[in-house]
Specification:
Blueprint (H helix, E strand, L loop, with lengths): L1 H16 L43 H8 L1 H15 L2 E12 L2 E2 L3 E8 L4 E8 L4 E7 L11 E6 L2 H6 L3 E4 L3 H6 L9 H17 L4 E10 L2 E9 L13 E7 L5 E7 L7 E12 L16
Antiparallel strand pairs: 1-2, 1-3, 1-12, 3-4, 4-5, 5-6, 6-7, 8-9, 9-10, 10-11, 11-12
Helix pairs in contact: 2-3, 3-6
Amino acid sequence: MNDLTNTNRRCGRNAVAALIIVMALGTQCHKADNQSPPVTLSNLERVDAAAILVDLETTDPLEQMAQRDPLAFLKHCRENYGKSVDDYICTFSKQELVEGDVSSEQIMRVKYRTEPLSINMKWVLNAGDAAHVTYIKGRWRSKKGIDQAWCKPAGAIASLFISKIKIPIRGRMAESASRRTIDQFGFLATLDLIIKYCDKSAEADLLDLRYVGSSTFGGRPTYLFERHLPYDGDEGHYPDRLLRFHIDKAFLLPSSCDAYADDAGEQILGRYSLTDVQFNVGYTDQDFGPDTLGS
């Protein structure tokens, strides 16, 4: 019995690491769940920002706003989200610098609901310690009031001992495994995070936010931006030095976000994309309950 208890505890500790989900981003509106193979970062178009020119003669009013006041453009995108998005399903891809090493690319199929914040994330490629996680904000708190999610541990050995467990979404182990927690996933959280540090650096007269020009990502037209901040490490006041991100022209949402520790874009901190997006599916609590794990 002691061996089984210890094993369960190890499963719980290991699974915490997989709950840390980063900035996730973007839109490509096509297929519903399981109708197409996952899209990998290697398959998606990565554009050399320096090779793109801004069209100064554009008649696109949104592009004119992006040129004139890129931060106002982002806040317009944030406002538009609140008027148009209730939920969505997407393919989420990420790579991150964690404890000095860049992780392998992970791919997940994710269901997301804006209110109450709900996320159901199933690994498709390179699952770590979790194979499937589901979370509703504030729904499964511990006796100490700690926010928790349900998790299905990855691997055959873990499945022999426990099919699902509740684990905290924050903690030392979680923070050491990834740059963001599960409740920081999604278009809304990404826009809020970008705007937060733009506002903070602007107040200190340090913001360098540029509209680079029209581009594409994943075969869809985008607005491409670059932001430079006085990043001085993960313990500093800013999350990155260079952030290069695409805003989908049709949906006004970030489809790709690459963060670097240097101005040249050579020292990767994180690379994230959201593709194959279908909006306003009509999800309910049943789509985010613990019974969905493994399905």
